[in-house]
């Protein structure tokens, strides 16, 4: 499998995205459970087929581009909102980046590390795969100049707090379902979803600046555009209200580009027991 990844890493993005688009539609056609979940989530959010159908191919592109991002040459990256990053870093209070399952979320951390990592490294939350070959493959990609990873453990949380207090950056996917006991039920597109409280606690404990970020996948293999914006309003002091505010912010990003959201992600699943 690693050999296949290395072979695919040499292909241009256009070819990988073409293969991924095909794979996305094959999965959609052949898996009734996958198809039902994707459609139910998109309809729950109020989107028409015109909005969510392109997300079928986009989900396949998300998988197909990984070999290039993990093992291949650098890809073209544009920025919109980089001034928010620069301004936040100059305050030296730490920067907490919140990224939903939208577009290419892998590229946001890599692009940050390349452009800003020399000034303030980024720490990303990372749950190692249970598959040995995938763990061996992905592990080194999470440790590169300007970028490091923190495990999904108490030690990892402490690592992120220390990074923020040093004025560095941390990246999270706040729409990822946490283990039982590490989240609260809060509305997400009109339906309660178990939502992590970690992002709120990190911001409140460290005083870090919270920025929203996502990586738009550009057409025809032209690379990516990293979008960055501040929270529309400061986080409330109340935990539940703050979590709801973050969910609303994630919704706003998805509404901006529903065609690249990972609608198949099991956002409304029951949380697993904490290991």
What's the structural blueprint in terms of helices and strands?
Elements: H1 2-9, H2 13-30, H3 32-44, H4 49-64, H5 66-71, E1 77-80, H6 82-91, E2 95-98, H7 105-116, E3 122-126, H8 132-138, E4 147-151, H9 154-165, E5 169-172, E6 183-188, E7 191-196, H10 198-206, E8 209-217, E9 224-230, H11 239-256
Parallel strand pairs: 1-9, 2-5, 2-8, 3-4, 3-5
Antiparallel strand pairs: 6-7, 8-9
Helix pairs in contact: 2-4, 9-10
- Which residues form runs of ≥5 with pLDDT under 50? none
Biggest sheet features: 7 strands, mixed
Distance between the termini: 28 Å
* Radius of gyration using CA atoms only: 18 Å
Q: Approximately what portion of the residues adopt beta-strand conformation?
A: 15-25%
- Taking strands numbered 1, 2, ... along the chain, how are they ordered across the largest sheet? 1-9-8-2-5-3-4
- The total beta strand count reads 9
The helix-strand sequence is HHHHHEHEHEHEHEEEHEEH
Molecular structure report:
With 275 residues, the protein is α/β, with parallel strands linked by helices. The protein contains 11 helices and 9 strands. Helix 2 packs across helix 4. A hairpin with a 6-residue loop joins strand 8 and strand 9 (224-230). The strands form 2 sheets. A 7-stranded mixed β-sheet has the order 1-9-8-2-5-3-4, with helices on both faces. Strands 6-7 form a two-stranded antiparallel ribbon.
